[in-house]
Amino acid sequence: MLFGLLLLPGLLFAQDKGKVEVVKDPKVDSLVQDYVLGDKGKNIAPVSSDGYRIQIFSGSDRKAAYDAQAKFKTKYPDLATYLTYRAPNFKVRVGDYRTRLEAEKMQQDLKPLFNGIFIIQEKINLPKLDTE
Hints:
Blueprint lengths: L1 H11 L14 H11 L10 E12 L2 H14 L5 E6 L2 E9 L2 H11 L7 E8 L7
């Protein structure tokens, strides 16, 4: 009896760490596929939504705009950059953030690298759905 009581705490805390097993109905995959591709095989999932981007450059110098974009891409190669031109200015905006809080966190990281950066609310590109 005493031996069993001594083993009980060890059994209660014995767990497999780092192992996740997903149990789902096979119909879930079918529903996701129907949502992404639709009935006719066309992609019907939304591709954009309201969100935020960070503007890291605004000015009339094209080379400076490309330099700012390249500087950002060297530090954050996986994040999207968007260069636009509306006479007479080029603008470089980065990221696709769903919440302002996400954008503010990145803005704090970028402050030492770029002057006069700020957050812009606009349509953003949503991440691609992983259907596999």
